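Deliverable D5.2: sample structural annotation.
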Amino acid sequence: MKDWVKEKLEQIEALYPPEKVEKRRERWRALWEGKPKTDRRPFVCTYYHEPYCPAPDFETRLREGLDEIIVRASIDDDYIPSLFTGCRQSTIPSMFGAEEIFLENNDVTCRKLIKSPADVAALPRHSMAGGTVARMWLDMEEYFLTETEGKLPIHVTDMQGPFDVAGQLWGYEELFVCAYEKPEIYHELIQKLTDAFIDFWNAQKALLGERFVPTHLFAWDWVPEDFGGSMSVDSLAMISKPFYDEFYRPYIEQIAKRLGKLAVHSCGDFSAVVKSLCKTKGIVAVNAGQMSLRSLFDAGMTPDTLAITFTHYEQIDDLFEVCKQFGARVVIGLGWVWNFQKPFAEWDSEDFGRLKAIERHMHQKLSEI
């Protein structure tokens, strides 16, 4: 363990004594298991350091992760100290040999491998060998685990589900046409990608053992240790209910069964499939990147499905109203809390006073719902 890591870990241990962390775990367990609240419902503030960027070198990422935990102690939310690697859309495509492509906006994609239905059968078996993005994530997780001597939990990396990996390897239009015209080819491809998703998930779980946190929704969230898994399905906004039921739902149910339970994320407006999503076996939680909690319930969200939210602090009272109106169970990720205009070391009494005012408001409201 490097001296700077040891110093930061000692600071974290002082800021997050075991009894405080366990009290937070109790609040989260009650919410996830549908039990009555303890003293109040939990909430957690969203990021200070951007977690979803393509990962820099391992040491820089670890340093940022430890600094993030220290900053978060400034407000009494329900954050559980943990580390998160990052996100690269090329992760699972790389397991099939797809070349990674870096874009000007710091996003990452991959070169397409499939040009026609005939190319599906020629796809190699997935691999997590050296040189793949998947191996890079495993190496980073092992570095975190070793360098911290296992003192902190580590989240699974952000992973796209098989449908969106297929969209990257081939193209969404071609994929959707194939589902109708050559359904046997579609199912062959999605099954290969489903198996790759599960194998990479299980590789991380085996590597991290008791330190494994089975969610990337979000990097600051916590789920019970026996929770199943999480998956991004960003293409939900592109499809109809009948298409979902025939071509997506069987694989989502398969993944949920193989992992235990499933939380699903999608960006965009996927109102057309919300009802079917909530009826899908194994799905216990849904996160919408752009849809509000109110719009989810207007689209057919059910109270027995946990909503994982990312809410601007100035809009939080409307979220509380929706909770009361629909009896919603909500993981509250509270955004726009931190002062990003100056470094944390330069914060003054006004900055910390604002955090305390937010904290008091949240504690009061969450004790009432």
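Annotation notes: The chain has a mean pLDDT of 95. The domain at 3-368 is CATH 3.20.20.210 (TIM Barrel).
The annotation will be released with the project's public dataset once the embargo ends.
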